[in-house]
Fold each of these.
Amino acid sequence: MEAKAVFGGSPCLSSSLPRLPAQRTCSLSYTHKPILRAILHDLHLAAFHSKSHLFSYSPSRPHAKTLSHKTRIFLPHLVASMEQVEETYIMVKPDGVQRGLVGEIISRFEKKGFKLTGLKLFQCPKELAEEHYKDLKTKSFFPKLIEYITSGPVVCMAWEGVGVVSSARKLIGSTDPLQANPGTIRGDLAVQTGRNVIHGSDSPENGKREIALWFKEGELCQWTPAQAPWLRE
Ligand code: IDP
Ligand code: MG
Protein backbone atom coordinates (compact mmCIF):
# COMPACT_ATOMS: atom_id res chain seq x y z
CA MET A 1 0.00 0.00 0.00
CA GLU A 2 1.26 3.47 -0.79
CA ALA A 3 0.54 6.75 0.96
CA LYS A 4 0.87 9.97 -1.01
CA ALA A 5 1.70 13.24 0.69
CA VAL A 6 1.63 16.75 -0.68
CA PHE A 7 3.51 19.35 1.31
CA GLY A 8 2.76 23.00 0.66
CA GLY A 9 6.20 24.30 1.66
CA SER A 10 4.74 26.62 4.28
CA PRO A 11 7.35 28.55 6.31
CA CYS A 12 5.52 27.66 9.53
CA LEU A 13 6.09 23.90 9.25
CA SER A 14 7.71 22.26 12.23
CA SER A 15 11.50 22.06 12.13
CA SER A 16 11.37 18.27 12.31
CA LEU A 17 9.88 18.10 8.83
CA PRO A 18 11.89 17.20 5.77
CA ARG A 19 12.71 20.26 3.68
CA LEU A 20 10.71 19.86 0.52
CA PRO A 21 10.20 22.35 -2.28
CA ALA A 22 6.71 23.80 -2.54
CA GLN A 23 4.04 21.38 -3.81
CA ARG A 24 6.31 18.40 -4.18
CA THR A 25 4.53 15.05 -4.14
CA CYS A 26 6.32 12.19 -2.50
CA SER A 27 5.38 8.53 -2.34
CA LEU A 28 5.79 6.70 0.93
CA SER A 29 5.65 2.97 1.27
CA TYR A 30 3.49 1.34 3.92
CA THR A 31 6.56 0.94 6.15
CA HIS A 32 6.91 4.74 6.24
CA LYS A 33 3.49 5.20 7.73
CA PRO A 34 4.72 5.50 11.34
CA ILE A 35 7.07 8.29 10.22
CA LEU A 36 4.25 9.94 8.34
CA ARG A 37 2.08 9.67 11.42
CA ALA A 38 4.75 11.32 13.53
CA ILE A 39 5.05 14.14 10.99
CA LEU A 40 1.27 14.52 10.99
CA HIS A 41 1.29 14.65 14.76
CA ASP A 42 3.91 17.43 14.64
CA LEU A 43 1.88 19.29 12.07
CA HIS A 44 -1.24 19.07 14.19
CA LEU A 45 0.68 20.43 17.13
CA ALA A 46 2.03 23.23 14.98
CA ALA A 47 -1.26 23.96 13.27
CA PHE A 48 -3.49 23.76 16.32
CA HIS A 49 -1.24 24.63 19.17
CA SER A 50 -3.98 24.40 21.74
CA LYS A 51 -7.72 24.71 21.74
CA SER A 52 -7.35 28.08 23.44
CA HIS A 53 -6.66 29.72 20.06
CA LEU A 54 -10.35 29.31 19.34
CA PHE A 55 -11.10 31.80 22.07
CA SER A 56 -8.10 34.11 21.80
CA TYR A 57 -8.64 37.67 20.71
CA SER A 58 -5.94 40.07 19.60
CA PRO A 59 -6.92 43.78 19.61
CA SER A 60 -4.38 44.41 16.85
CA ARG A 61 -6.10 41.80 14.63
CA PRO A 62 -9.79 42.23 15.48
CA HIS A 63 -10.95 40.15 12.48
CA ALA A 64 -8.69 37.24 13.30
CA LYS A 65 -10.39 36.08 16.47
CA THR A 66 -10.09 32.39 15.72
CA LEU A 67 -6.85 32.29 13.73
CA SER A 68 -3.45 32.23 15.30
CA HIS A 69 -0.43 32.78 13.05
CA LYS A 70 0.25 29.05 13.21
CA THR A 71 -2.97 27.90 11.56
CA ARG A 72 -1.87 28.29 7.94
CA ILE A 73 -1.18 24.63 7.26
CA PHE A 74 -3.74 22.92 5.08
CA LEU A 75 -3.06 19.30 4.26
CA PRO A 76 -6.15 17.69 2.80
CA HIS A 77 -4.18 15.28 0.61
CA LEU A 78 -2.02 14.13 3.48
CA VAL A 79 -4.93 13.66 5.84
CA ALA A 80 -7.05 11.89 3.19
CA SER A 81 -4.26 9.46 2.38
CA MET A 82 -4.00 8.49 6.06
CA GLU A 83 -7.63 7.41 6.19
CA GLN A 84 -8.23 3.70 6.45
CA VAL A 85 -10.36 1.66 4.10
CA GLU A 86 -13.36 0.53 6.14
CA GLU A 87 -16.11 -2.05 5.70
CA THR A 88 -19.75 -1.63 6.56
CA TYR A 89 -22.70 -3.99 6.71
CA ILE A 90 -25.77 -2.63 4.96
CA MET A 91 -29.06 -4.51 4.97
CA VAL A 92 -32.31 -3.81 3.16
CA LYS A 93 -34.87 -4.84 5.76
CA PRO A 94 -37.95 -6.95 4.88
CA ASP A 95 -40.14 -3.86 4.24
CA GLY A 96 -37.56 -2.52 1.75
CA VAL A 97 -37.54 -5.86 -0.10
CA GLN A 98 -41.35 -6.16 -0.11
CA ARG A 99 -41.74 -2.58 -1.35
CA GLY A 100 -39.36 -3.09 -4.27
CA LEU A 101 -36.71 -0.66 -2.97
CA VAL A 102 -33.67 -2.95 -3.33
CA GLY A 103 -32.46 -1.53 -6.66
CA GLU A 104 -32.94 2.06 -5.55
CA ILE A 105 -31.01 1.48 -2.32
CA ILE A 106 -28.10 -0.37 -3.94
CA SER A 107 -27.97 2.34 -6.57
CA ARG A 108 -27.41 5.09 -3.98
CA PHE A 109 -24.29 3.37 -2.61
CA GLU A 110 -23.01 2.55 -6.11
CA LYS A 111 -23.47 6.13 -7.29
CA LYS A 112 -21.69 7.47 -4.22
CA GLY A 113 -18.63 5.47 -5.26
CA PHE A 114 -18.30 2.72 -2.66
CA LYS A 115 -17.32 -0.83 -3.54
CA LEU A 116 -19.77 -3.70 -3.16
CA THR A 117 -17.98 -6.79 -1.87
CA GLY A 118 -20.92 -8.96 -0.79
CA LEU A 119 -24.60 -9.27 -1.77
CA LYS A 120 -27.31 -11.85 -1.07
CA LEU A 121 -31.04 -12.28 -0.52
CA PHE A 122 -31.51 -14.09 2.75
CA GLN A 123 -34.21 -15.25 5.15
CA CYS A 124 -32.80 -14.35 8.56
CA PRO A 125 -33.23 -16.90 11.38
CA LYS A 126 -34.40 -15.60 14.77
CA GLU A 127 -31.08 -16.42 16.51
CA LEU A 128 -29.09 -14.38 14.00
CA ALA A 129 -31.45 -11.39 14.33
CA GLU A 130 -31.09 -11.58 18.13
CA GLU A 131 -27.30 -11.76 17.92
CA HIS A 132 -27.17 -8.85 15.45
CA TYR A 133 -29.30 -6.64 17.69
CA LYS A 134 -27.99 -7.98 21.03
CA ASP A 135 -27.17 -4.44 22.28
CA LEU A 136 -30.89 -3.64 22.13
CA LYS A 137 -31.99 -6.74 24.05
CA THR A 138 -33.30 -4.74 27.02
CA LYS A 139 -35.39 -2.37 24.89
CA SER A 140 -39.15 -2.75 25.01
CA PHE A 141 -39.33 -2.87 21.21
CA PHE A 142 -36.79 -5.74 20.96
CA PRO A 143 -39.34 -8.59 20.40
CA LYS A 144 -41.11 -6.56 17.71
CA LEU A 145 -37.77 -5.71 16.10
CA ILE A 146 -36.83 -9.41 15.86
CA GLU A 147 -40.28 -10.20 14.45
CA TYR A 148 -39.83 -7.43 11.86
CA ILE A 149 -36.35 -8.46 10.74
CA THR A 150 -37.36 -12.12 10.38
CA SER A 151 -40.73 -11.39 8.72
CA GLY A 152 -39.39 -11.83 5.17
CA PRO A 153 -36.16 -11.92 3.19
CA VAL A 154 -33.55 -9.23 3.68
CA VAL A 155 -30.80 -8.15 1.30
CA CYS A 156 -27.39 -8.38 2.95
CA MET A 157 -24.58 -6.24 1.63
CA ALA A 158 -20.93 -5.58 2.44
CA TRP A 159 -19.55 -2.27 1.20
CA GLU A 160 -15.99 -1.05 1.33
CA GLY A 161 -14.31 2.35 1.09
CA VAL A 162 -12.55 5.16 2.89
CA GLY A 163 -14.99 6.58 5.44
CA VAL A 164 -17.74 4.23 4.27
CA VAL A 165 -19.19 3.65 7.77
CA SER A 166 -20.09 7.24 8.60
CA SER A 167 -20.85 8.14 5.00
CA ALA A 168 -23.32 5.25 4.76
CA ARG A 169 -25.00 6.46 7.96
CA LYS A 170 -25.38 9.89 6.33
CA LEU A 171 -26.84 8.34 3.17
CA ILE A 172 -29.23 6.31 5.34
CA GLY A 173 -30.41 9.18 7.59
CA SER A 174 -31.80 9.28 11.13
CA THR A 175 -33.33 6.20 12.77
CA ASP A 176 -36.74 7.88 12.81
CA PRO A 177 -37.62 8.46 9.14
CA LEU A 178 -39.72 11.50 10.03
CA GLN A 179 -36.58 13.11 11.47
CA ALA A 180 -34.38 11.99 8.55
CA ASN A 181 -33.45 14.68 6.06
CA PRO A 182 -34.90 14.63 2.57
CA GLY A 183 -32.32 13.14 0.25
CA THR A 184 -31.46 10.37 2.68
CA ILE A 185 -32.80 6.84 2.16
CA ARG A 186 -35.01 6.90 5.25
CA GLY A 187 -35.95 10.55 4.66
CA ASP A 188 -37.13 9.75 1.13
CA LEU A 189 -38.49 6.23 1.45
CA ALA A 190 -39.89 5.60 4.95
CA VAL A 191 -42.21 7.05 7.61
CA GLN A 192 -41.82 4.96 10.78
CA THR A 193 -38.91 3.84 12.98
CA GLY A 194 -40.35 0.33 13.12
CA ARG A 195 -40.32 0.19 9.28
CA ASN A 196 -37.22 2.18 8.38
CA VAL A 197 -36.16 -0.02 5.43
CA ILE A 198 -32.42 -0.21 5.99
CA HIS A 199 -29.67 -1.04 8.45
CA GLY A 200 -26.11 0.36 8.46
CA SER A 201 -23.25 -0.44 10.86
CA ASP A 202 -22.54 2.32 13.38
CA SER A 203 -18.74 1.90 13.67
CA PRO A 204 -15.87 0.29 11.71
CA GLU A 205 -15.61 -2.37 14.45
CA ASN A 206 -19.29 -3.22 14.15
CA GLY A 207 -18.92 -3.18 10.34
CA LYS A 208 -16.39 -6.02 10.61
CA ARG A 209 -18.40 -7.82 13.28
CA GLU A 210 -21.65 -7.69 11.34
CA ILE A 211 -20.10 -8.72 8.00
CA ALA A 212 -18.57 -11.74 9.75
CA LEU A 213 -21.97 -12.49 11.29
CA TRP A 214 -24.03 -12.29 8.09
CA PHE A 215 -21.60 -13.64 5.48
CA LYS A 216 -19.92 -17.03 5.33
CA GLU A 217 -16.38 -17.52 4.14
CA GLY A 218 -16.26 -17.43 0.35
CA GLU A 219 -19.35 -15.22 0.03
CA LEU A 220 -17.34 -11.99 -0.16
CA CYS A 221 -15.55 -10.94 -3.31
CA GLN A 222 -12.44 -8.79 -3.56
CA TRP A 223 -12.15 -6.95 -6.86
CA THR A 224 -10.85 -3.72 -8.35
CA PRO A 225 -13.55 -1.52 -9.89
CA ALA A 226 -12.55 -0.11 -13.29
CA GLN A 227 -13.67 3.33 -12.13
CA ALA A 228 -11.23 3.38 -9.16
CA PRO A 229 -8.82 5.96 -10.72
CA TRP A 230 -11.82 8.23 -11.40
CA LEU A 231 -12.90 8.17 -7.77
CA ARG A 232 -9.64 8.74 -5.92
CA GLU A 233 -6.51 10.69 -6.81
P1 IDP B 1 -30.18 2.52 13.64
O1 IDP B 1 -30.83 1.43 12.78
O2 IDP B 1 -30.42 3.89 13.06
O3 IDP B 1 -28.72 2.25 13.92
P2 IDP B 1 -30.75 1.68 16.37
O4 IDP B 1 -30.98 2.60 17.52
O5 IDP B 1 -29.48 0.90 16.34
O6 IDP B 1 -30.95 2.53 15.04
O7 IDP B 1 -31.96 0.67 16.34
C1 IDP B 1 -31.94 -0.46 15.52
C2 IDP B 1 -33.31 -0.63 14.88
O8 IDP B 1 -34.26 -0.89 15.90
C3 IDP B 1 -33.84 0.61 14.17
O9 IDP B 1 -33.33 0.77 12.85
C4 IDP B 1 -35.30 0.33 14.16
O10 IDP B 1 -35.66 -0.60 13.15
C5 IDP B 1 -35.50 -0.32 15.52
N1 IDP B 1 -35.91 0.65 16.55
C6 IDP B 1 -35.12 1.55 17.19
N2 IDP B 1 -35.83 2.29 18.04
C7 IDP B 1 -37.11 1.84 17.94
C8 IDP B 1 -38.33 2.24 18.57
O11 IDP B 1 -38.38 3.14 19.40
N3 IDP B 1 -39.45 1.57 18.18
C9 IDP B 1 -39.43 0.55 17.26
N4 IDP B 1 -38.31 0.17 16.65
C10 IDP B 1 -37.16 0.80 16.98
MG1 MG C 1 -27.79 0.74 15.09
Note: Residues 1-36, 38-71 have pLDDT under 50 and may be disordered.
Amino acid sequence: MKEKLVITIDGPAGAGKSTVSNALARRLSYLYLDTGALYRAFAYKVIEDGILPGDEKVLAALCARIELHLDNIDGSLNVFVDGANVTKMIRCEEVGLVASRVSAVSAVRERLLAIQRQAGDRGGVVAEGRDMGTVVFPMADYKFYLDASVDERVRRRYAELRSQRGSVDYKKVAEDLVVRDRQDQERKIAPLKASEDATIVDSTKMSVAEVVEKMISIIRGA
Ligand code: DC
Protein backbone atom coordinates (compact mmCIF):
# COMPACT_ATOMS: atom_id res chain seq x y z
CA MET A 1 0.00 0.00 0.00
CA LYS A 2 1.31 3.45 -0.95
CA GLU A 3 2.30 5.59 2.05
CA LYS A 4 0.23 8.56 3.16
CA LEU A 5 -2.91 8.22 1.12
CA VAL A 6 -5.73 10.73 0.88
CA ILE A 7 -9.00 8.91 1.57
CA THR A 8 -12.32 10.72 1.29
CA ILE A 9 -15.66 9.78 2.81
CA ASP A 10 -18.73 11.77 1.77
CA GLY A 11 -22.38 11.15 2.46
CA PRO A 12 -25.57 12.46 4.04
CA ALA A 13 -26.15 13.27 7.71
CA GLY A 14 -26.52 10.21 9.93
CA ALA A 15 -24.91 7.72 7.52
CA GLY A 16 -22.22 6.94 10.10
CA LYS A 17 -19.44 8.93 8.39
CA SER A 18 -17.88 10.29 11.58
CA THR A 19 -17.70 6.95 13.38
CA VAL A 20 -16.43 5.14 10.30
CA SER A 21 -13.92 7.86 9.34
CA ASN A 22 -12.58 8.03 12.86
CA ALA A 23 -12.23 4.24 13.08
CA LEU A 24 -10.59 4.03 9.66
CA ALA A 25 -8.14 6.83 10.52
CA ARG A 26 -7.18 5.05 13.75
CA ARG A 27 -6.66 1.76 11.92
CA LEU A 28 -4.31 3.42 9.44
CA SER A 29 -2.75 5.84 11.99
CA TYR A 30 -3.97 8.69 9.81
CA LEU A 31 -5.40 12.10 10.66
CA TYR A 32 -9.18 12.17 10.82
CA LEU A 33 -10.23 15.40 9.13
CA ASP A 34 -13.80 16.22 10.12
CA THR A 35 -14.64 19.07 7.74
CA GLY A 36 -18.20 19.32 9.11
CA ALA A 37 -16.58 20.57 12.34
CA LEU A 38 -15.25 23.59 10.43
CA TYR A 39 -18.69 24.43 9.02
CA ARG A 40 -20.15 23.90 12.49
CA ALA A 41 -17.53 26.16 14.09
CA PHE A 42 -18.34 28.86 11.54
CA ALA A 43 -22.06 28.37 12.28
CA TYR A 44 -21.38 28.60 16.01
CA LYS A 45 -19.91 32.07 15.46
CA VAL A 46 -22.89 33.02 13.25
CA ILE A 47 -25.27 32.11 16.07
CA GLU A 48 -23.13 33.77 18.73
CA ASP A 49 -22.96 37.03 16.75
CA GLY A 50 -26.73 36.96 16.04
CA ILE A 51 -26.16 36.86 12.25
CA LEU A 52 -29.03 35.68 10.05
CA PRO A 53 -27.88 32.54 8.16
CA GLY A 54 -29.40 33.96 4.95
CA ASP A 55 -27.56 37.30 5.10
CA GLU A 56 -24.81 36.70 2.54
CA LYS A 57 -23.22 40.15 2.88
CA VAL A 58 -22.77 39.87 6.62
CA LEU A 59 -21.54 36.28 6.23
CA ALA A 60 -18.92 37.43 3.71
CA ALA A 61 -17.77 40.10 6.19
CA LEU A 62 -17.53 37.44 8.89
CA CYS A 63 -15.39 35.33 6.53
CA ALA A 64 -12.93 38.20 6.30
CA ARG A 65 -12.49 38.60 10.05
CA ILE A 66 -13.04 35.13 11.55
CA GLU A 67 -9.96 33.22 12.65
CA LEU A 68 -10.43 29.46 12.32
CA HIS A 69 -7.93 26.75 12.88
CA LEU A 70 -7.62 23.04 13.53
CA ASP A 71 -5.31 21.43 16.03
CA ASN A 72 -4.64 17.80 16.79
CA ILE A 73 -4.78 17.41 20.57
CA ASP A 74 -3.97 13.93 21.95
CA GLY A 75 -4.95 12.35 18.66
CA SER A 76 -8.28 14.15 18.25
CA LEU A 77 -9.06 17.05 16.02
CA ASN A 78 -10.01 20.24 17.86
CA VAL A 79 -11.43 23.32 16.20
CA PHE A 80 -10.79 26.89 17.31
CA VAL A 81 -12.74 30.07 16.54
CA ASP A 82 -10.99 33.34 17.29
CA GLY A 83 -8.70 31.48 19.67
CA ALA A 84 -11.46 29.66 21.61
CA ASN A 85 -11.74 25.88 21.50
CA VAL A 86 -15.36 25.22 20.41
CA THR A 87 -14.99 21.49 19.70
CA LYS A 88 -17.52 20.43 22.33
CA MET A 89 -20.01 23.24 21.74
CA ILE A 90 -20.75 22.54 18.07
CA ARG A 91 -22.36 19.10 18.28
CA CYS A 92 -26.05 20.04 18.72
CA GLU A 93 -28.63 19.93 15.92
CA GLU A 94 -29.15 23.71 16.02
CA VAL A 95 -25.52 24.25 15.03
CA GLY A 96 -25.78 21.46 12.41
CA LEU A 97 -28.78 23.08 10.75
CA VAL A 98 -27.18 26.54 10.68
CA ALA A 99 -23.97 24.95 9.34
CA SER A 100 -26.02 23.42 6.56
CA ARG A 101 -27.61 26.82 5.76
CA VAL A 102 -24.38 28.83 5.70
CA SER A 103 -22.50 26.12 3.81
CA ALA A 104 -24.58 27.03 0.75
CA VAL A 105 -22.89 30.46 0.61
CA SER A 106 -19.91 30.59 -1.76
CA ALA A 107 -17.86 33.01 0.39
CA VAL A 108 -18.12 30.56 3.28
CA ARG A 109 -17.10 27.56 1.18
CA GLU A 110 -14.15 29.47 -0.26
CA ARG A 111 -13.04 30.60 3.18
CA LEU A 112 -12.98 27.02 4.48
CA LEU A 113 -11.46 25.40 1.38
CA ALA A 114 -7.84 26.41 2.03
CA ILE A 115 -7.96 25.23 5.66
CA GLN A 116 -9.22 21.82 4.54
CA ARG A 117 -6.64 21.43 1.78
CA GLN A 118 -3.83 22.57 4.04
CA ALA A 119 -4.81 19.95 6.63
CA GLY A 120 -5.05 17.14 4.09
CA ASP A 121 -2.88 17.58 1.09
CA ARG A 122 0.28 16.07 2.56
CA GLY A 123 -1.69 12.81 2.75
CA GLY A 124 -2.13 10.41 5.63
CA VAL A 125 -5.67 11.65 6.03
CA VAL A 126 -9.24 10.39 6.12
CA ALA A 127 -11.26 13.44 5.09
CA GLU A 128 -14.96 13.37 5.86
CA GLY A 129 -17.65 15.73 4.59
CA ARG A 130 -20.01 16.41 1.70
CA ASP A 131 -17.66 17.50 -1.10
CA MET A 132 -14.37 15.82 -0.22
CA GLY A 133 -14.20 13.64 -3.34
CA THR A 134 -15.86 16.13 -5.69
CA VAL A 135 -14.24 19.48 -4.77
CA VAL A 136 -11.72 19.55 -1.92
CA PHE A 137 -9.62 16.48 -2.78
CA PRO A 138 -10.58 15.54 -6.37
CA MET A 139 -7.25 13.68 -6.73
CA ALA A 140 -7.79 11.54 -3.61
CA ASP A 141 -6.40 8.00 -3.72
CA TYR A 142 -9.64 6.39 -2.50
CA LYS A 143 -13.10 7.89 -2.46
CA PHE A 144 -16.09 6.48 -0.62
CA TYR A 145 -19.69 7.62 -0.51
CA LEU A 146 -21.32 6.28 2.61
CA ASP A 147 -25.09 6.07 2.50
CA ALA A 148 -27.96 4.45 4.44
CA SER A 149 -31.75 4.54 4.20
CA VAL A 150 -33.48 7.61 5.65
CA ASP A 151 -35.19 5.49 8.34
CA GLU A 152 -31.90 3.98 9.44
CA ARG A 153 -30.15 7.35 9.48
CA VAL A 154 -32.93 8.86 11.62
CA ARG A 155 -32.74 5.89 13.98
CA ARG A 156 -28.98 6.27 14.37
CA ARG A 157 -29.11 10.03 14.85
CA TYR A 158 -31.89 9.61 17.42
CA ALA A 159 -29.87 7.01 19.37
CA GLU A 160 -26.79 9.25 19.27
CA LEU A 161 -28.66 12.34 20.51
CA ARG A 162 -30.47 10.32 23.21
CA SER A 163 -27.21 9.01 24.58
CA GLN A 164 -25.94 12.61 24.77
CA ARG A 165 -29.03 14.36 26.09
CA GLY A 166 -31.56 11.85 27.40
CA SER A 167 -34.89 13.09 26.08
CA VAL A 168 -35.16 13.68 22.35
CA ASP A 169 -38.20 13.99 20.06
CA TYR A 170 -38.01 11.31 17.34
CA LYS A 171 -40.26 13.26 14.98
CA LYS A 172 -38.12 16.38 15.33
CA VAL A 173 -34.94 14.37 14.62
CA ALA A 174 -36.58 12.97 11.46
CA GLU A 175 -37.75 16.42 10.31
CA ASP A 176 -34.33 18.03 10.90
CA LEU A 177 -32.57 15.25 8.99
CA VAL A 178 -34.87 15.59 5.97
CA VAL A 179 -34.37 19.38 5.95
CA ARG A 180 -30.59 18.93 6.13
CA ASP A 181 -30.59 16.32 3.32
CA ARG A 182 -32.54 18.69 1.11
CA GLN A 183 -30.37 21.73 1.88
CA ASP A 184 -27.12 19.81 1.37
CA GLN A 185 -28.25 18.11 -1.87
CA GLU A 186 -30.00 21.05 -3.51
CA ARG A 187 -27.48 23.84 -2.96
CA LYS A 188 -25.88 25.22 -6.10
CA ILE A 189 -22.24 25.11 -4.99
CA ALA A 190 -20.58 21.80 -4.10
CA PRO A 191 -23.84 19.95 -3.40
CA LEU A 192 -23.76 16.62 -1.62
CA LYS A 193 -23.32 13.93 -4.25
CA ALA A 194 -21.17 10.93 -4.90
CA SER A 195 -18.09 11.64 -6.98
CA GLU A 196 -18.23 9.61 -10.21
CA ASP A 197 -15.15 7.66 -9.17
CA ALA A 198 -16.35 6.98 -5.59
CA THR A 199 -17.19 3.55 -4.23
CA ILE A 200 -20.73 3.70 -2.86
CA VAL A 201 -21.18 1.85 0.43
CA ASP A 202 -24.73 1.32 1.67
CA SER A 203 -24.38 0.83 5.42
CA THR A 204 -28.10 0.32 6.15
CA LYS A 205 -27.58 -3.30 7.16
CA MET A 206 -23.89 -3.11 8.09
CA SER A 207 -22.13 -2.54 11.39
CA VAL A 208 -19.37 0.07 11.72
CA ALA A 209 -16.79 -2.74 11.89
CA GLU A 210 -18.12 -4.27 8.65
CA VAL A 211 -17.99 -0.94 6.83
CA VAL A 212 -14.43 -0.28 8.02
CA GLU A 213 -13.32 -3.81 6.99
CA LYS A 214 -14.85 -3.32 3.56
CA MET A 215 -13.01 -0.03 3.10
CA ILE A 216 -9.72 -1.47 4.36
CA SER A 217 -9.97 -4.38 1.94
CA ILE A 218 -10.61 -2.00 -0.96
CA ILE A 219 -7.66 0.19 0.07
CA ARG A 220 -5.38 -2.81 0.43
CA GLY A 221 -6.63 -4.10 -2.89
CA ALA A 222 -7.86 -7.38 -1.40
O1 DC B 1 -21.12 16.46 8.84
P1 DC B 1 -21.77 17.47 9.72
O2 DC B 1 -23.15 17.06 10.14
O3 DC B 1 -20.92 17.84 10.89
O4 DC B 1 -21.89 18.79 8.80
C1 DC B 1 -22.67 19.91 9.16
C2 DC B 1 -23.08 20.67 7.91
O5 DC B 1 -21.94 21.30 7.31
C3 DC B 1 -23.68 19.83 6.80
O6 DC B 1 -25.09 19.68 6.94
C4 DC B 1 -23.32 20.57 5.54
C5 DC B 1 -22.04 21.28 5.89
N1 DC B 1 -20.85 20.62 5.31
C6 DC B 1 -20.56 20.91 4.00
O7 DC B 1 -21.31 21.62 3.34
N2 DC B 1 -19.43 20.39 3.43
C7 DC B 1 -18.62 19.59 4.13
N3 DC B 1 -17.53 19.13 3.55
C8 DC B 1 -18.92 19.26 5.47
C9 DC B 1 -20.06 19.78 6.03
Note: Strands lie at 6-10, 31-34, 68-73, 76-81, 84-85, 125-129, 142-147, 199-202.
